[in-house]
Amino acid sequence: MEKTKRICVWSGPRNISTALMYSFAQRKDTTVVDEPLYAHYLTSTKAYEYHPGADDVISSQENDGQKVIEEIVLGEYETPIVFFKHMTHHLVDLDLSFLKQTVNVILTREPREMLTSFIKQIPNPTLRDTGYPQHLELMDYLKSIGQNPVVIDSKEVLLNPGIKLREICEQLEIPFDDAMLNWEAGARPEDGIWAKYWYHNVHKSTGFMPYRPKEKILSQALENVLAECERYYFKLLNS
């Protein structure tokens, strides 16, 4: 176990987390795992009621989050690096001490752009659905155990993937691999069963897509959620 580098990327929804997973999947020294705590989250919250394909997700994965941590996150792998794509809001009522054995990355996105995309699948998200409060909670916990996690704003990756990925690899103390910049279009074997609901755009891609700003007027209720998201987002970037 000590020889395995376990990289946990803690993202919010509608970010570049799947593209980043595809990027790391191109490395011959890396195994990637797609959202192993999703079923735990759905069975531990009311999100089951409004997440597309919830029944499929629950039937496809171990539902007990602690077992997921012990058997998957801390399990044995043939490759020296394992990349776990996680959603921070999936950390529901779990003992976080396992994070002492992982290298942790927080992946965030400008809140208005995230919400503009998120509401296509989840029309009325709550603040907790967005993951922004949990990002700050996670940052506080990681600092309390002596870690200084890598924080990535997705826009920076999209603006210059080559430079930013090299920087990320350096921070993670792993060599950069040029193969990380491109992949074949279409689904991947690592995709979770939820891919058919969430991965349409990334399945069309062959690399990180160029950054394009998105502006959309939101309902007043969502503007209120946005204001809260922005408060946590800027705190995270300045923490």
What does this structure look like?
The protein has 12 helices and 5 strands. By secondary structure, the protein is of the alpha/beta class. The protein has a 5-stranded parallel β-sheet, with helices on both faces. The radius of gyration is 17 Å and the shape is globular.
The average pLDDT value, as a whole number, equals 96
Distance between the termini: 31 Å
In helices, the fraction of residues equals 40-55%
Widest sheet, order of strands: 2-3-1-4-5
Compute the number of structural domains. Answer: 1
What is the annotated CATH architecture?
3-Layer(aba) Sandwich
Task: Kindly report the oligomeric state of this protein.
Answer: single chain
How many strand segments?
5
CATH level 3 topology: Rossmann fold
CA-based shape:
globular
CATH class equals Alpha Beta
Category from helices, strands and their pairing:
alpha/beta
Beta-strand percent range: 5-15%
User: In this structure, how is the largest beta sheet organized?
Assistant: 5 strands, parallel
Q: Give, in order, the helices and strands.
A: EHEHHHEEHHHEHHHHH
Distinct helical segment count: 12
Unreliable spans are: none
- Gyration radius over CA: 17 Å
Task: Name its key features.
globular; alpha/beta; five-stranded parallel sheet; 5 strands; Rossmann fold; 239 residues
Write the layout of secondary structure elements.
Blueprint (H helix, E strand, L loop, with lengths): L4 E7 L5 H9 L4 E5 L3 H7 L9 H7 L4 H9 L7 E7 L15 E6 L2 H8 L8 H4 L1 H13 L5 E4 H6 L1 H12 L22 H4 L1 H5 L15 H18 L2
Parallel strand pairs: 1-3, 1-4, 2-3, 4-5
Helix pairs in contact: 2-3, 7-12
